[in-house]
Amino acid sequence: MHPFYRQATSLVGRPVYVHANGRVHYGVLHSVTTDGVYLRSLNRQTTVKADHADPLNLDPLLFTDTGNIELEEVFWPFFFLPWLAIGALGPWWW
């Protein structure tokens, strides 16, 4: 068991940053097992190097704001039907 196992279990559900292999991973600690930790992403684009001086700025509304989501359902097979037709009729063109 890792020396920080007990400390990590007390932080479940809280935003943390984890240093691993020279990288910093930001997220909300989802669960802790004897094999490792599981993080949920904090909507950052990428991870950063450990020597980067980027402070961890958290907005409490980041996790609760779900308003103004614009969704539109798309039927994906319509995008593939032209390619299906080209693939099916293509051999007769030769």
Please explain how this structure is put together.
- The chain has 94 residues and is an alpha+beta fold.
- The chain has a domain at 1-63.
- The protein has helices at residues 5-9, 77-93; strands at 15-20, 23-32, 37-41, 48-49.
- Strands 1, 2, 3 and 4 form a four-stranded antiparallel beta sheet that branches.
- The longest helix has 17 residues, at 77-93.
- It is elongated, with a radius of gyration of 23 Å.
Topology:
Elements (H helix, E strand, L loop, with lengths): L4 H5 L5 E6 L2 E10 L4 E5 L6 E2 L27 H17 L1
Antiparallel strand pairs: 1-2, 2-3, 2-4
Which descriptors would you attach to this protein?
elongated, 94 residues, four-stranded antiparallel sheet, 4 strands, membrane, transmembrane helix, transmembrane, 2 helices
- Proportion of strand residues: 15-25%
Residue share in helix: 10-25%
- For the termini, the CA-CA separation is 65 Å
The succession of helices and strands, N to C, reads HEEEEH
Shape: elongated
Number of separate strands: 4
Low-confidence spans: 58-63
**Main β sheet profile:** 4 strands, antiparallel
Question: How many individual helices?
Answer: 2
Radius of gyration: 23 Å
- Helix/strand class: alpha+beta
Average pLDDT over all residues? 74
Oligomer: single chain
